[in-house]
# Entry
Amino acid sequence: MVKAHWRPGTSAPNPTRFGIPDYVGRSCQFRNLYFRPFDCTFHYYASPLQSRLVGENTTALLKQITTSKGYVPRSLYNKPKRRHEFVFAESRNASFTPKLHLFDSNSSEIDHSNVVSVAALRNQKMPVFLLYKLSYVFNFGHFVFDDLLSLFSLLDIFGYASDEVGNPSLSTNYQHIPVTFPNEEHDFFYRCNHHSRWKECVEMYKRVAPLMGVQPVQEQNDDILSMKHLFRQSHHENPRIFVQLPVVLVGTGDLAYFGCTGPCGAQRVSRIYCMRAWVFSNLFGPELGNQYSRQSAIPGRILVALPFGNSHVGIESFDTMIPAIQHAFGRSSVHVVNMASLSLKDQILEASQAHVYLSNNGGGSASSLFCARDSTVILFYQINGQKRDEELYSNQGYLNVKYLKAGTSSNYVIEQILYALSQ
# Structure
């Protein structure tokens, strides 16, 4: 069985403007999909009713079961026509289609005596496999926007991210297992699939994986967990052996950053805050995570995130600003931190306690999404640059976000802090 979800504003199953493939914006939940370790292929067996309705014309059904591997930047389709051939080449690599088998009462390609169940592999919990393609995990901000948010929404739209009353769910009945598609030799968008980026992505992925509540890294050969590695012991040399996967989720979710504009962007108002609670639960456990995610900021606490590791030109160094802020509000109220030197737990706790958070606008500023409700975030964009991720920060709904240009006078920044503290 397959259940499909389309993002609002996209057509189903017809392509949208600019020749965007059907699968873009679609997410699917497969029940009882089969994986063959011998050649690393996925197999979908249509029901007798599906097979009878489809007949020999399988095009419609193939469209229904084809989805994205994750992170298809729809905005790039608006580029001039001469670039379409590059975009299309990447898009075809980003699609996922299991091999389709129609029901035949006289024969079956699967001998069910050769089917291996995976239920026992995870302490009797039902495994929910998340198949996806890494995007820009080497950058913390891109990881949060493009991977974490997409995977959370993928779980959420099919009911696996929270319980019936909306609390983050770490169910005793299932365990989600992120599994990446194999990396490719080339990637037009220079993401983790680009061969020169792979090792860098793996190292960062090991560090940020706990945000998803899992450790999806196969330590042997330093490779990220893939289906091939996961079932390497499951008779992988026997082409007759199939592994039955009870639940498989594939797609972009419905909050993928570059694919989420217009009505979709407005939905982030509550969903990003839900993702925030989910991450707290993953990192600290349900009870402590719920406590941390609901607590208010410490009144008057000002956090300044230093720009260590920021390679952009024309950023805010805070060299003259920090002494001025400390003089205005007292040294004990101003916490100056190199966030990159802290553990994930400490980074998120620091952000959650800040009444006002000052940071350069970039990948590192994504930690501000873990600030408490009604906190103020002041983002400094490059002197000769532009405001980054403005659409995302404008649609999160629970923070007061202010953009200032790097080099803004300390007196004006102090005025903005005073205004924030008075709210």
Notes: The longest strand covers residues 26-36. The chain has twelve helices and 17 strands. The chain has a mean pLDDT of 77.
